[in-house]
């Protein structure tokens, strides 16, 4: 017997520290016009030293809100799925940290490393566990602390102006209503382009001391690298394909989309997809202007905000889509 899974509660958290484009112009050669023209971003949130936040802590804060809204006790959570590219430690993963922070005695905790597609991949994992009957309640978190690893100089501006910190969470639970909940998820990857959006070191292949010793005159590649134009070109193609794949699977048309929430990578990508699909502003939700790209956290933060603002109603067809490093991409079709 296959069960149905649905989102029972949503929550999000972003640090209080607002970093505007003007703030960035004081530490690197950039300006508000340059950033907005290329990304649509006006400001983002960064963890501030001493504020007590980390990837796991922000995930815990978002999770508490989602649990309260779902009216599900923490001890009824059967599985934690935590998506991030910026864990507090190489190991252990953030999933077990959140389990301890929430005071859950024991439960399995799974960490997902699919970067910008992390929440969609995590949603698929949670959905399958519930559908097969193995678990009833799954806590899914996407959280990122980018600011701790960005090159905040002119050299790194093309990447550093884009990213922000934050977390979003969803509680998925078993439902008897076959016509409601997660209808389908669709996942893809294309590893041949893995290094076009990557962080090569430090890693188990490239520890910082080794790099300094072997290449004393060269820049240490422990900051993110992105081939921006190539990523943009692939993103718009894959976004379109995976959205259409999900609609076709469920015998839906573009006109059936009540709300599209794309991963907040770049406002220009979202606008391209919106124009291509001829969707109105009321059918697409973007908040990259306020938060920048929060990678695995971007979809749950945007989904939470759209729901809080009453833009998502019962019976709506909600489409989630993401594309990012790997390359990986995916979509989810939800009947709210």
Descriptive account of the structure:
This protein is α/β, with parallel strands linked by helices and 336 residues long. The protein folds into 2 domains: 4-179, Peroxisomal Thiolase, Chain A, domain 1, CATH 3.40.47.10; 182-335, Thiolase/Chalcone synthase (Peroxisomal Thiolase, Chain A, domain 1), CATH 3.40.47.10. It contains 11 helices and 13 strands. The chain has helices at 21-25, 32-39, 55-70, 94-102, 118-131, 157-160, 208-214, 228-249, 267-277, 288-291, 298-308; strands spanning 4-13, 18-20, 43-45, 79-83, 109-112, 137-144, 166-175, 181-189, 197-198, 225-226, 259-262, 317-324, 328-335. Strands 1-7-6-4-5 form a 5-stranded mixed sheet, sandwiched between helices. It has a 4-stranded mixed sheet with strand order 8-13-12-11, sandwiched between helices. It has a two-stranded antiparallel sheet with strand order 2-3. A hairpin with a 3-residue loop joins strand 12 (317-324) and strand 13. Helix 3 (55-70) crosses helix 4 (94-102) and helix 8 packs across helix 9. The chain is globular, with a radius of gyration of 19 Å. The two termini are 22 Å apart. InterPro entries: ACP_syn_III_C (IPR013747), ACP_syn_III_N (IPR013751), FabH (IPR004655), Thiolase-like (IPR016039). The active site is at residues 116, 263, 293. Keywords: Acyltransferase, Cytoplasm, Fatty acid biosynthesis, Fatty acid metabolism, Lipid biosynthesis, Lipid metabolism, Multifunctional enzyme, Transferase. Residues 110-191 form the Beta-ketoacyl-[acyl-carrier-protein] synthase III N-terminal domain. Residues 247-336 form the Beta-ketoacyl-[acyl-carrier-protein] synthase III C-terminal domain.
């Amino acid at each position: 017997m296959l069960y149905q899974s649905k989102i029972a509660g949503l929550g999000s958290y972003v640090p209080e520290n607002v970093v505007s484009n003007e703030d960035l112009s004081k530490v690197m050669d950039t300006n508000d016009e340059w950033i907005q023209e290329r990304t649509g971003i006006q400001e983002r949130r960064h963890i501030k030293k001493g504020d007590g936040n980390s990837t796991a802590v922000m995930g815990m804060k978002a999770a508490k809100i989602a649990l309260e809204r779902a009216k599900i006790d923490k001890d009824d959570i059967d599985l934690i799925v935590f998506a991030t590219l910026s864990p507090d430690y190489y190991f252990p993963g953030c999933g077990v940290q959140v389990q301890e922070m929430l005071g859950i005695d024991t439960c399995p905790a799974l960490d997902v490393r699919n970067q910008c597609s992390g929440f969609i991949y995590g949603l698929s994992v949670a959905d399958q566990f519930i559908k097969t009957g193995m678990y009833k309640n799954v806590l899914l978190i996407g959280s990122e602390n980018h600011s701790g690893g960005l090159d905040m100089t002119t050299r790194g501006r093309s990447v550093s102006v884009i990213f922000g910190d934050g977390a979003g969470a969803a509680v998925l639970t078993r439902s008897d209503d076959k016509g409601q909940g997660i209808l389908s998820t669709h996942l893809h990857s294309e590893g041949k382009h893995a290094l076009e959006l990557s962080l090569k070191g430090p890693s188990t292949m490239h520890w910082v001391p080794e790099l300094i010793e072997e290449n004393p005159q060269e820049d240490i590649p422990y900051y993110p690298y992105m081939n921006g134009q190539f990523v943009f070109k692939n993103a718009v193609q894959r976004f379109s394909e995976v959205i259409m794949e999900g609609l076709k699977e469920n015998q839906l048309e573009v006109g059936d989309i009540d709300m599209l929430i794309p991963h907040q990578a770049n406002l220009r990508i979202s606008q391209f997809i919106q124009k291509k699909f001829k969707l109105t502003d009321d059918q697409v939700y973007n908040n990259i202007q306020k938060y920048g790209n929060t990678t695995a956290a971007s979809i749950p933060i945007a989904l939470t905000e759209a729901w809080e603002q009453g833009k998502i109603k019962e019976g709506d067809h909600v489409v989630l889509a993401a594309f990012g490093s790997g390359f990986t991409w995916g979509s989810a079709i939800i009947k709210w």
